[in-house]
Amino acid sequence: MYFKIITLHLLVGALTITAIDLDVTGEWKTDLGWEVICTWETWRNDTLQSVRLYNNGQQFMIYRPEKHGQSRTEIFRTPEKIMNVDCAITTDKGQKGRCILILEPYQPPLYDFTYTCEVSGERPMFRMGKKDFHVRVLVPPSNAELTVITSNDPSSPRVTLNCSSSGLPAPSLQWTVGDNKVQADFARRGWNGTSKLWQSWSSFTYTRSDPTQIVACTPEASSNSEIIRGKKAVLHI
Ligand SMILES: *[C@@H]1O[C@H](CO)[C@@H](O)[C@H](O)[C@H]1NC(C)=O
Ligand SMILES: *[C@@H]1O[C@H](CO)[C@@H](O)[C@H](O)[C@H]1NC(C)=O
Ligand SMILES: *[C@@H]1O[C@H](CO)[C@@H](O)[C@H](O)[C@H]1NC(C)=O
């Protein structure tokens, strides 16, 4: 039984090696959004027929050099996002080329998505390559930034701190004094349309007593039931 499964995998692997070579990579770009790049390379004696792009299994663009020429660029707008696609071939018959997708969110994205690139060669071989890329809605929380909000009375033992971090989904900010978790006085978050990230901030007021005590603020985000922490900020008061 196990043997059969292994053989099947090996077979699939062998078949994809003889098909079109395809690679899809993606990353979050500061102040821009996600950039996903599909690159391909067919056999030298093959000719590119088409490149199809899919979002969650739905085709949203096709590029055919025969019809569109050396490149095709398209912009797709929805109320939530703008998708900019630029496909181009770098060899005569399209044996090599790439499609760059830039996905700029206008509103906080909620769901992960799968981007698929499918490259097909011309007859008589009709070779094909297809690859998925999972885009996770996650930009880990930035390092916490702690500031002391100056009080009107410098001799007062009361200190108010402000902590902030940005990310996607919105980071929550956890305060600790020494080893103890403490409750923030209040927390806010706002969507920043320039960075396309949530900016969270939280303030905490406490009374100085033990000078050896350390106050820390740790940004945390939860994604697919995983907790991702940003670098905490600490203050010795
Ligand atoms: C195309 O090239 C590959 C090697 O890159 C070769 O194995 C294959 O036989 C060639 N096919 C034709 C139809 O020339
Ligand atoms: C705390 O920091 C955030 C982000 O830098 C800022 O928007 C907010 O006004 C600050 N809050 C206070 C009370 O200063
Ligand atoms: C929004 O993000 C931009 C770019 O990252 C940054 O310069 C700006 O200060 C942020 N605005 C707020 C209100 O945090």
From TrEMBL:
Q: Give the signal peptide, or none.
A: 1-19
Keyword check for Signal: yes
Check the record and name the InterPro entries matching this protein.
Answer: Ig-like_dom_sf, Ig-like_fold
Q: What superkingdom does the record give?
A: Eukaryota
Keywords associated with the record? Signal
State the protein's name.
Ig-like domain-containing protein
Upper lineage: Eukaryota, Metazoa, Ecdysozoa, Arthropoda, Hexapoda
